[in-house]
Design a protein that fits this description.
Helices cover 60% and strands 10% of the residues. By secondary structure, it is α/β, with parallel strands linked by helices. The strands form two sheets. A six-stranded mixed β-sheet has the order 6-7-8-3-9-10, sandwiched between helices. The chain has a four-stranded antiparallel β-sheet with strand order 2-1-4-5, with helices on one face. Bound molecules: adenosine-5'-diphosphate (ADP) and magnesium ion. The site of adenosine-5'-diphosphate has 12 residues, from helix 11.
Amino acid sequence: MPGDNIIFEPVQKSSTYPRVTERIRSDKSLGWLRRLQPIVMTHRWRIACSVLAAVVAMVAQILVPRVVGLAVDRSLIDETSGLTGFVLVLLVLGALRATATFAYRYGLYGMAFKVEYQLRNMLFEHLGQLSFSFFDRVQSGQIISRANSDIRSVQMFMAFAPIMAVQFLSFIIAIGLMAAISIPLTAITMVALPGVFAIGQRLRKVMFPLSWVIQSRQAEIATVVDESVNGVRVVKAFASEQQQIETLAKGAQRLRWANMVQHRTRASHTPLIENLPRIALAVVLLVGGLQTIDGALSVGDLISFNLYILLLQAPFRFIGMLLILGQRAKASAERIFEILDEPPAVEDRPGAIDLFDAHGAVSFKDVRFAYGTETVGGNPGNEEAPVVLNGFSLDIPAGQTVAIVGKTGSGKSTIARLLLRFYEPQAGQVRLDDKEIAAITQRSLRSTISLVPDEPFLFSTSIFENISYGKPDATRGEVEAAAKAAQAHGFISELESGYDTVVGERGYDLSGGQRQRISLARLFLQSPSVILLDDSTSAIDVEIEQSIHQALKSLLQDRTTIVIAHRLSTIALADRVVLIDKGKVIADGTHRQLLLNEPRYIETLEASTETGEPWS
Ligand SMILES: Nc1ncnc2c1ncn2[C@@H]1O[C@H](COP(=O)(O)OP(=O)(O)O)[C@@H](O)[C@H]1O
Ligand SMILES: [Mg+2]
């Protein structure tokens, strides 16, 4: 029996990922079910078999009143035939119904969970292609709630809708069988139908906007929770737990309100839909009873008829449910489509080439860039967004190490992001090995160029896996060598499980400097042609940084490197220094040349070397 021996999923099975190749229809004018059709159609056989089983179950159910009616008339009243035959038929019908019910439920739930799997993977794959501008502007709580509760409400509808369709069919058949017994009584039964229809329409109209509101309020709450958890250090540091609680309570209150409106509407409409037909039951009993007394109708027929009316209750109950689930699924599907319809802002150009063994010559030519100019989630971009880079030109020959120096907010990190094609410049060109980067596949571009950001991101896996992230097939020896070069081997060895230590959420159980060193080890292991160091050693102690520089120097020797740095010790790694201001290069030369000839360089250095290191 279920529960006695729970079947565990075989976790050791190697995780192969059956790729989801189906796509929803891109025509936004189609209804949500039509848009989902390509996905649903992959399960057409399963759906067909399940519906067939449901029809069998339904027929088995619907024959029962007729058999009972005949049994009453023939065996109990007329005594023209034995009861055993009828009992046997009822037993067989019962067994048939049980088996068919199992089959269609299993089939439909299996289908619905497959659709859920497909949608979730499609959504995730699509998220991977979306632009950074999308992630800059859309809250992660919104994305998480769409990937969870919205997909679930579509899944629920998928499982129920075919059952309800069959219920509707059973309704038609039951009406037919009832008409065969007595047309006047059937007409009385149908009197309530227009009323049910009208109430159903009203319910549908209210449910759709309400479902939308509820889903978006759930997303609001997910965002508050997400930010409170990820920002817990800030929340605690400012002792503003109370403030977060109040923000959450406000959102929860708004959600509760919407849920209550939904349930009030549901509570006031569904009983009407379910019980209107019961009025018919009373009238049928009265009229039918009189007819039976007159002898116009047999007792068995009256019993069958009443059983049919009871049978009709189920479809009526389902109408209410179908309307509610349907409207919720529609709202949710449209929320999911909002993400799926979002075009990937940065796409591989048709005919983009894979770049192998790049030399690493980098050039920016007259680049102009402002953040937030793209349309995201249907919201038009800001045309008047402040321009970060304007007429930015820089040529870096292969193998050179260049330091970029500039005030905070002058666009240094933006240069790195444009080179990786995280964003697309509005004008000008970025070239690698004299090829426009837009003509290179993003995959090969990003494996040629590596970025070590100032705030490294560690995954909640082992340190080994974090270091080998860019080269998953790295051996233990390679990972250790990389860690040694990044001066990380020492502290990793002191950890309880060494390289197998699983780091906490985002690596917050390590110090900022330790995280940066792991991130550098990641770089050393990947050994790319172009290296971007964006303040990557800012949190590492000066003495440790010196030893990392030894390793860096040998790594950087024949690779193009752009270092963004404030520390003189880091700038000293560079062959050449470029000073930027207001989105342009304003001075270019060696550190010594700039010190001698460029007062703005000294000014910038003074402003940014908070440690008061000597800069000459
Ligand atoms: N993702 C973003 N969306 C919108 N504006 C941004 C984004 N990132 C940076 N900016 C803005 O662009 C300007 C340059 O930023 P950045 O390149 O990070 O400067 P730097 O690295 O030199 O300190 C800043 O004014 C900053 O506010
Ligand atoms: Mg920066």
